[in-house]
Amino acid sequence: MSLLHLAIFSPFLMAILVPFFYKGLRSIHTGWFVLILPILLFTYFIGFLPVTRNNGTVEKSFDWIPSLGIRFTAYVDGLGLLFALLITGIGSLVVLYSIFYLSKEKERLHNFYVYLLLFMGAMLGVVLSDNLITLYMFWELTSISSFLLIAYWYDRERSRYGALKSMLLTVFGGLSMLGGILLLSIMGDTFSIRELISQASELNGHPLFLFALILILLGAFTKSAQFPFYIWLPDAMEAPTPVSAYLHSATMVKAGIYLVARLSPIFAFSSYWFWIVGAVGIFTMFWGSFNAVKQTDLKGILAFSTVSQLGLIMSLLGAGAAALHFDALNDNIYIAAVIAAVFHLINHATFKGSLFMVVGIVDHETGTRDIRKLGGLLSFMPITFSIAVIGAFSMAGLPPFNGFLSKEMFFTGMIQLVDLNIFNLQTWGMLFPILAWIGSIFTFIYSMMFVFKTFSGKYQPEKLDKKPHEAPVGMLISPIILAVLVVLFGLFPNLLSYSLIQPAAAAIVPSLVEPGELLSVHIVHWHGVTTELLMTIGVIAVGILMYLTLSKWIKLYTLFPGKVTLNTLYDTSLYAAERGSYTFTKAYMNGFIRTYLVYIFVFFIGILGFTMWTEGALKIDKSNLAPIGVYEIVLVIIILAGIFTILFAKSRLTSIIALGAVGYTVSLFFVIFRAPDLALTQLVIETVSVALFLLCFYHLPKLNRHEERMGFKLGNLIISLGVGTVIALMAISSHSNKMFESIASYYVANTYKEAAGKNMVNVILVDFRGFDTLFEISVLAIAGLGIFGLIKLRLAKKGGEADEN
Amino acid sequence: MLVMVMKLSLILITLAMLGFIYRLVKGPTVPDRIVALDAIGINLVAMIAILSMLFKTYAFLDVILLLGILSFIGTTAFSKFLEKGEIIENDRNH
């Protein structure tokens, strides 16, 4: 347990304390206490920068379940540190923002901050774990805490729906990921990511490799809201805005990105990885931006925008996988894709966080997030407007903001794929830049919509609940800081190059980086008139044109059938699954005991008959048989007569009497086979049970006392014959398979000598094997007490009233 | 000689029992069946007595005694059931 571990666990410890602060210090907003922690953590993690700067790493480990090889290894390298800084940095800003966003009086703040801290700790655990099992543990913890946060206003139905949906999808992905992790650990015989990376080339040829790859990608895609699993993200917008800003733009949805980046060194040599990650990413990028344009809710726009931007990062990571196929570092152009991915990851976290906070402010000050009701807020909220412009322009990829740089690098990465002559890219490679370009146009359009539909245009006071005004200062601090970062990274991108981007990129493609060598990351604004610059100009030109004519073609969206969406698919499949399992259960659990008995007996015949048949267990050995006397034959005839009488009797009374006759005949068998004790007991018990049967018969209601034969059913006949045959065959076989001598001779020899008795049966019952008798007595006692209770204790007899006396 | 006689009588008793069984199965009324059952019980007593002579053992004498008692109790219970509709009148509990 080191300081690093303490840092990871500190949010959990803090989460324990939060309710005490909330109850004990009601006058101060709980968020102020919480705020201290992420700031401390952020400064703590900043301290690691000099280490990772030269691709150094820090590793601290302690045993958790050593017998299973599960250690909690905290591992800080460039990638982990980048995420840790994002989590704690944006975490601090979000906590600060939430202090002003959430009312002290009206909200259940303790719940909020406990969930938020749980989430923060879980995220830190995910990005700083080297052990796959602890990574999975923290991964699920992020799912759970995100579920809790989405349903923070649990009295709203939409919140609960969104929380359930995100839970189902991310946990589905999480479990798939666990499968992948287990396969990986089987292949590599370790849970440590670094050890797995070191044997990546052996893993590549393993038969389980592809399964592990797909399962792990399922986990990453569901978490990072990739196509077709993005559907939970727009519904997660029911969460409070600080949550949306934190979880659904900056951190949790990037856990999948992190996983892909982290495991790239293991999988990226495979063409499957390249194609799945790249193609799903680029399609998600296009699809998300395409769908964002038709949203009318500001958070809806941002949700789809997040989906799209995550797709962008994912496709860059896919493209970065191509870098591994070219060994030389110096002229490896594909490494630019990895750098672009890392850079855009940072950029997206900054501008998307600020945009969400802007939406929160607008919502807070006007009472709505619907762009059809908003407009003309520019004069009321100038500061918010400025932040929104910076964020949205950066999102659209306009200079001089940081989005411009990463969008340029994104285009570069996509264009370079066309030149690649592996993995059939000659034929399909063109799709990457084309989709990227179209997606970027839509990104431009919705970014413009976001700003101008909200802040410019006509002010519609009649549609707003409140008179809009500028937000309080405290609420503006966090988005201002983020906006400043957006501009700062835009103007001076090389602030980040060697401190954060280089080590993170080096961690994604470790095999390309020699020890002591650094990736060359130099981000420049102006690199000449290149294809990507022309593409950006084209995006802006077409984007402006399309934005201005938006009202003309927005109707095109209505052409798409509204029902055929992935949401409908999710809803119907959920409904169908529920309905289907209900129907299935209803079909076989029909409530009739006779049906269940049929299942049991058919299974019995099937399993025993099948086993006997396949194992060749049926064996008939006549050598050991005793001679059959006349009495036995006669008694068998009598028993048969009794049984047939029972079966075919018209009245139940006849059946009962015949049953008694059968019982007495059995006692006669006991006489013939020389078992006097059995005969005695059998006689008494038979008499008593016949008397009991008569008692039952007497109490039958008149209505049901049909004097009819048992109805004939062919199925029942077949099953009963089957059971009888199987049992008979089994008895014969087992009799023919005597494997060793009986131990009865011991009892014969020792009954008198050891136990001082002459009746061997009784001596066995009370002496040699008295324990059985003890519990038989218990059974009888329980039965007696049970019957007494059944008769005496009539709780709900009169009018449903309970009467325990 | 004695064994032969015993076996013969055993067979005869069995035949008698088959006759009673026929009556038990056929009916036609419940009292017919009950009387048949009672007689079967007594036949069983005789059978077990002869059998224990054949097996040369005293072990089954208890069984004979018990059968006598049970046969009596059973028949009485049946008769009471037929007459009154119940075996043990429990007015106390109502």
What descriptors fit this protein?
heterodimer, A: mainly alpha, two-stranded antiparallel sheet, 34 helices, 2% strand, disordered C terminus, B: mainly alpha, 79% helix
Describe the structure.
The complex is a heterodimer of chains A (about 800) and B (about 90). A two-stranded antiparallel sheet of chain A has the order 1-2. By secondary structure, chain A is mostly helical. Chain A is about 70% helix and about 0% strand. Chain A has 34 helices and two strands. The longest helix of chain A is centred in the N-terminal third of the chain and has 32 residues, at about 155-190. Chain A has helices at about 5-25, 30-45, 50-55, 80-100, 110-130, 130-150, 155-190, 195-200, 200-205, 210-225, 230-235, 240-250, 255-265, 270-290, 300-320, 335-365, 380-395, 400-420, 425-430, 430-455, 475-490, 495-510, 530-550, 550-555, 555-560, 565-590, 595-615, 630-650, 650-670, 675-700, 715-735, 745-755, 760-770, 770-790; strands at about 60-65, 70-75. By secondary structure, chain B is mainly α. In chain B, about 25% of the residues are buried. The longest helix of chain B is centred in the first third of the chain and has 25 residues, at about 1-25. In chain B, helix 1 packs antiparallel against helix 2 (about 30-55) and helix 2 (about 30-55) runs antiparallel to helix 3 (about 60-85). Chain B is about 80% helix and about 0% strand. Chain B is built from three helices and no strands. The radius of gyration of chain B is 17 Å and the shape is flat. The interface between A and B is medium-sized, with 31 and 38 residues.
